[in-house]
Design a protein that fits this description.
The protein is built from four helices and twelve strands, in the order E-E-E-E-E-E-H-H-E-E-E-E-H-H-E-E. The protein has helices at 57-78, 84-97, 142-152, 159-174, and strands at 10-15, 20-25, 28-30, 33-36, 42-44, 49-55, 105-112, 118-123, 129-132, 135-139, 184-189, 194-199. The strands form three sheets. Strands 10-1-2-11-12 form a five-stranded antiparallel sheet, with helices on one face. It has a five-stranded antiparallel sheet with strand order 5-6-7-8-9, with helices on one face. A two-stranded antiparallel ribbon has the order 3-4. The protein starts with 9 loop residues before the first strand and ends in a 5-residue tail after the last strand. Pfam families: Proteasome.
């Protein structure tokens, strides 16, 4: 088994009409053994920028702490919050710094830019950026997520429709992946607020 699949877990980000959504499952396991059902893989970096981390669980926590530190340092130096595209480049360079002994994680970034345009992108373990206009997936259920997202995604969805689309895509994809699951956590980011929702899934 690949080290990227050791703990399981999946993440997906999706764009809408002046809004963006990012969601992850809640399972933490050791191969086929479930350890916890409350291990989210999406973390707030700013009010409008969120980071999804899948892969090896200790690297997920290490990267979250590293990027939280770097975002805070940026805020102190620049006296403003970091933009999603700037943060994406920060993630890319941070991962590339460790290319000879990379972190075992495939991050996903989602956020709203200053003009309220949605921004999403994904990375490989050494920081190569994959920009997208519709959706981006990561984790052990990535193949299933591609199929579900291509089936249900529509452009310019309103926030409530986007929530329904991303949650159904993730729930159905993780039902077809033995090492993802136990429900999901969904963030819907709009120009004036961010809504966090916990969605119950199959508990097996």
């Amino acid at each position: 088994m690949s080290i990227m699949e050791y703990n399981g877990g999946s993440c997906v980000a999706m764009t809408g009409k002046n809004c963006v959504a990012i969601a992850s499952d809640l399972r933490l396991g050791v191969q086929s053994i479930s350890l916890a059902n409350n291990f989210p893989k999406v973390f707030p970096m700013t009010d409008k920028t969120y980071l999804g981390l899948t892969g090896f669980a200790s690297d997920v926590q290490t990267l979250y702490e590293l990027f939280r530190y770097k975002v805070n340092m940026y805020k102190f130096r620049e006296e403003r919050q970091i933009e999603p595209k700037t943060f994406a480049n920060l993630v890319s360079t941070s991962l590339y710094e460790k290319r000879f002994g990379p972190y075992f994680s495939f991050p996903v970034v989602a956020g709203l830019a200053k003009d309220d345009n949605p921004f999403i992108c994904g990375f490989d373990s050494i920081g190569c950026i994959d920009f997208a206009d519709d959706f981006i997936v990561s984790g052990t259920a990535a193949e299933q997520l591609y199929g579900m997202c291509e089936s249900v995604y529509e452009p310019n969805l309103e926030p409530e429709d986007l929530f329904e689309t991303i949650s159904q895509a993730l729930l159905n994809a993780q039902d077809r992946d033995a090492i993802s699951g136990w429900g999901c956590i969904v963030y819907i980011i709009t120009p004036d607020k961010c809504v966090k929702r916990l969605v119950k899934g199959r508990q097996d």
